[in-house]
Amino acid sequence: MGRLPLDDVKVCYHDDADRCSCRKPAPGMILEAAKEHDVDLARSFMVGDRWKDIEAGERAGTVTILVENEYPEKRPGNAAARVKSLREAAEWIIAREKVGT
Q1: What total of structural domains would you count in the chain?
Q2: Short-list 27, 29, 25, 35, CA closest to 12
Q3: If both were cysteines, with which of 17, 36, 49, 91 could 67 make a disulfide (CB 3.0 to 4.6 Å apart)?
Q4: Mean of pLDDT over the chain
Q5: Would you state the pLDDT for residue 101?
């Protein structure tokens, strides 16, 4: 299996009650990373397994992909794709990039 290069790791140590700009569903960490690494968010993908991930990705302007789960919580409705694994998410992204959409 191939390796994925990693440039950065961002973590929010706050609690939901802190209402910070970095805790998902706020897009703060995504926006900060995009600025630091010169990332075009409109051409980027947010892959997550919770509604907060998908909403943060939408707020940041990315294409969102939900990795399906059985969490007893709110379900995101707007993900561009719904997949069963990270591998399937990667395959979806690669296929999308090949057709140029």
Answers
A1: 1
A2: 29
A3: 49
A4: 91
A5: 56
